[in-house]
Design brief:
single chain, 16% strand, 137 residues, alpha+beta, 5 helices, 4-stranded mixed sheet, Zincin-like
């Protein structure tokens, strides 16, 4: 059957809220797109960040762009806070230069994500119920 993709405006709104709340000013929201996928055989992957590399930018004559993909079957089963952690994780992959590159998991660690997540819920005035899941990325 294959994987099906669709724009995810609801996820884009959440990404925009997270980026603005955490003052991730390097994340140019006009160059970030949210996509929901269904039909992946992956069981551990909850989200992905795709970057448009420099060679594609040059060949197509367009600016850098990033796609945040959430794998719907797994993502929708999670609590809102777990989903927020995933979205923060994926946004953290976007480098400060917003040039089409990618921050890897030596920077985007569970510990660093958790710090931003706790700051996010503090800034939003939400409860700090830390029912986190271990090894979620």
């Amino acid at each position: 059957m294959g994987i099906k993709y669709e724009k995810a405006d609801d996820i884009m709104q959440r990404l925009a809220d997270i980026a603005k709340t955490l003052q991730m000013d390097h994340v140019r929201l006009n160059g970030v797109f949210a996509v929901r996928s269904r039909g992946s055989g992956s069981r551990r992957t909850l989200g992905r960040c795709h970057a448009l590399s420099k060679i594609w930018q040059l060949a197509l004559g367009i600016d850098a762009a990033y796609i945040i993909e959430i794998l719907d079957e797994q993502f929708r089963k999670m609590s809102k806070h777990e989903q927020d952690r995933i979205l923060i994780h994926e946004l953290m992959h976007i480098p400060f230069c917003f040039g089409g590159g990618f921050k890897h998991h030596d920077v985007v660690t569970e510990r660093n994500v958790e710090k931003l997540f706790l700051n996010y819920i503090r800034l939003k005035g939400e409860s700090e119920e830390k029912k986190g899941i271990s090894g979620w990325f």
